[in-house]
Specification:
It is built from 15 helices and 5 strands. It has about 325 residues and is an alpha/beta fold. The chain is globular, with a radius of gyration of 20 Å.
Length: about 325
């Protein structure tokens, strides 16, 4: 199977033709919600989540049984600039850990009944240093977008995408700054825990990358400032929208990937919710730009899709209540 695009212009056109939510399913789910054995609004955001999920699945009484977690891994040329507290070799080592079942994301996926896939993207060939040139050629970014598109299981009923890539909070900060403006310092955080000197280096690297790659068209921003795993997440999120599979967004890097789609096409993230607000300083600001309210705020800064995977439990709870509760008529309870 191949992806239905072979150029950025074709991918851009595909984003303009993504489906909308099923209005009839939304209306029916709202009607059902109004008949459940509870006071109106008593389940708070869980009610809105269930109705949102019903709309994307086209079913007023949906089930959530087959969530998929995909972790994409890539290496970055800017890692050589000292933007991370860890060496680039850790990316390869963590991929092995994912595949052996030893990482946090493995435990969370298992806890919430999700299948988990790991896709390493040319780890022996980092992207170019974007302070010197574009991070990827068009062929490279298309290959990464297609890898993400093809990694989505058509049978999944929920998608979480995560990432592993030493140094990747730096391209995420550069992407956010390019898309939404502001200063590099406003978007650059400590990532894996760099000290003040490391933070200064990261901020300077982001500034240099923006100066070297001044274009602001969203998919060109992704090509020039992103990474293979970031592009793959964007491809997977777009594929999920195409297949009406709801998505839970993870942290700053995942949200930066999603932001590219949001800026490229209106409504591109209507099928997405924000799983959590991470400890990375700019994540909440990026969510605000996208109009996404996080479900959880637990101080996480691990990546891997961990915060989004944890939020699977919240969404499962919302869907279970909506679809499993009795109506007043079914329970023989008066709603007067």
């Amino acid at each position: 199977m191949t992806a239905p695009f072979s150029s950025l212009s074709e991918f851009r056109a595909l984003l303009q033709a993504l489906p909308a939510t099923d209005a009839a399913a939304v209306a029916a789910a709202q009607a059902r919600n109004g008949q459940l054995t509870k006071p109106p609004g008593a389940l708070g955001r869980l009610e809105d989540l269930a109705i949102w999920y019903a709309g994307w699945r086209g079913d007023a009484r949906p089930r959530l049984e087959h969530p998929q977690v995909i972790v994409f891994a890539g290496n970055h040329g800017v890692a050589a600039r000292g933007v991370s507290a860890f060496p680039a070799e850790v990316t390869v080592q963590m991929v092995a850990n994912f595949r052996a079942g030893g990482a946090a994301i493995n435990q969370l996926a298992k806890a919430f009944g999700a299948t988990m896939d790991v896709l390493a993207l040319e780890l022996d060939r980092p992207t170019a240093d974007f302070t010197q040139t574009a991070a990827m050629t068009e062929a490279e970014v298309i290959s990464a977008l297609a890898a993400g598109w093809l990694a989505v299981d058509a049978a999944a009923d929920l998608l979480v995408v995560g990432e592993m890539g030493i140094g990747n909070t730096t391209p995420a900060a550069a992407i956010a700054c390019a898309l939404f403006g502001g200063t590099p310092g406003e978007w650059t955080g400590r990532g894996t825990g760099v000290d003040d000197k490391g933070l200064s280096v990261k901020t300077q690297v982001v500034a240099e990358g923006l100066a070297t790659n001044p274009g602001r068209e969203p998919l060109e921003v992704l090509r020039c400032l992103g990474g293979r795993e970031i592009a793959a997440m964007a491809g997977a999120i777009a594929r999920a929208h195409h297949a009406r599979i709801p998505v839970i967004l993870d942290g700053f890097i995942c949200t930066a990937a999603a932001a590219v789609l949001a800026q490229a096409a209106e409504g591109a993230l209507d099928h997405c919710i924000a799983g959590h607000a991470s400890a990375e300083a700019a994540h909440r600001a990026l969510l605000s730009k996208l109009g996404k309210q996080p479900l959880l705020e637990l101080g996480l800064r691990l990546g891997e899709g961990s915060g989004a995977a944890l939020a699977i439990g919240v969404l499962k709870g919302a869907v279970a209540c909506h679809s499993g509760m009795a109506t007043f008529a079914e329970a023989g309870v008066s709603d007067a």
